[in-house]
Amino acid sequence: MVKTLVFITQAYVNFASDAALEKVRSKVRTVLVLYRDEVVNARIARHMDDIVRVGGALTDNVRPVLSVEEMLVLVEHEIGQAGNADAVRVFCQEECNVLGAATIRVTLDIPGDSPDMVQRFRDKLEMKEAVAKHGVRVPGYEKLDRNRLSAEPQAYYDALVEKLGKRLVVKPTRAAGSFNVTVVESYEDFLVARKVVEDEIFRFEYEVDEFISGTMYQCDSFVRNGIVVFSGILELGCSNFDFVQGKPLSVYPAIPEALRQRLFQFNQDVVTALGFENGSTHHELFFNEADGSIVFLEIAARVPGGIGVPFHEKNSHVNLIDANLYYTVDPAWLSDIQPIVSNNVVSALLPVGHGTVVQLNEPKIESRYEIVWNVQPGAVVNSRSLVDNAGILTLYNDDRIVLRRDFERLQHYVPVTCK
């Protein structure tokens, strides 16, 4: 029986319902681990028995990577209080710390995801290699050679183009939210990418990928014993990279049934190839309408970020954070979660731009909508990843023709005027 639940970071826990957090706390001791300078979410704090702060590295990723050594001491103490390691669980849905959480589990013999499995979801080179071995189509790729990038950029660029094609994508192998991603269409772009790689304070490794054309989709899943039991499949209005460049990152749920079934099976094939057993995954892929091909992009062993969790709750009545909490504490509680899909909702994460915000702009659409703004006029903003956003737009319409029309209109919506 689980007696203690240790939350590593509060990221995404804010999407949990109060009912779920109350239910969890009624059964187990709840401990929240935060970075030492982080401001605690007041609503989350109300559901915690203890809040502990630890140090962490600020240059390893886009969010603080918490000290595994300090957390080991904390969790070992909780094991002593609970009586044994099987009575403790470690909960983490934040990309930069899922590997640290897995390391704690294996070191202290706590049930849950192992470092070997999580590593396949954290390192984009390893994940592509693993799924390709199972027959899943992936983009051409290779690890970025920093020595060649520095010493012979022109020759290196020419070699990459010959191998991977005229359009390239340079990106970190372990970041998140399209942080430091560069699309390269010329040698001049390649020099821009080199500057990003060499001047950045973060200690990332990088890869170079073939640019894939097609419509982007995401599959946000809940998995039990290796089987996908729920997958919210969404068409994306743009990529994460396009969002950083200024396009709203919108999602549309009404996928034609034949395509939905193909994407569902492709998603299951990827989950199986990577050996994922229980919990949530967030999978991005491309579908090419011209030839019907599906190409893997990447997958994470966690719930979706940004608008993902609230969207599925609105559209399918499935709160993926609640589901993961219930599975972690008492899997029998999962019977409380029953999908009811409506497909009458579109959501968009709004780009923030660069400079000083001078005006917030309403969208010109037909559907009923609401916006939760995260910025106000006078704010100084700089878009570098999905973390940097202006807010969330949600629109509702039972008329799917109008809903689709508004989804397409959002591709041209500029929510923030900056100077």
From TrEMBL:
InterPro entries noted in UniProt: ATP-dep_AA_Ligase (IPR052032), ATP-grasp (IPR011761), ATP_grasp_subdomain_1 (IPR013815)
Keyword ATP-binding in record: yes
Domain of life: Bacteria
Pfam family for this entry, one: ATP-grasp_4
Domain (ATP-grasp): residue spans on this chain: 128-329
Keywords linked to the UniProt accession: ATP-binding, Ligase, Nucleotide-binding
Name of the protein: ATP-grasp domain-containing protein
